[in-house]
Write a structure and sequence with these properties.
Number of strands: 5
Oligomer: single chain
Low-confidence stretches: none
Number of domains: 1
Distance between the termini: 39 Å
Strand order of the largest sheet: 1-5-4-3-2
Number of helices: 2
Structural class: alpha+beta
Mean pLDDT: 85
Order of helices and strands: EEEEEHH
Largest sheet: 5 strands, mixed
Amino acid sequence: MTATKTKPTAADPAIITINATYGFTVSDREYSLYKRVTVDPTKAPSYKPEPGVAHPEPYEDWRTINRYYSQTTDGLRSILLYVTHRSVNDSFSGSSVTEYMAAIQAELSRLNAMISSALIPAVFD
């Protein structure tokens, strides 16, 4: 992956990242799921290069994927399961159900370890 900048905008919600690709926001009633995408302005249909002007650089942006979950433990669990399956589907190169299930289990284990380490305070060090 090439180095890209994240385009900051004042209207951006505070994204809580789950992994490099997915994150969510929290409102007073729901969780909203977002996906990080790389935007290359030179690929836009309306882009017309001007002589002597540098090409705009690609940047990363969070885009809503229009998936909303109730602000409950079950809603958060649903987000994590959805992201697990999408993340595996985006990168899966195996050919058997056993390999697919192993990839799902590995991603779930990674998320569980991340969540568990965040929930256990180091009070007695």
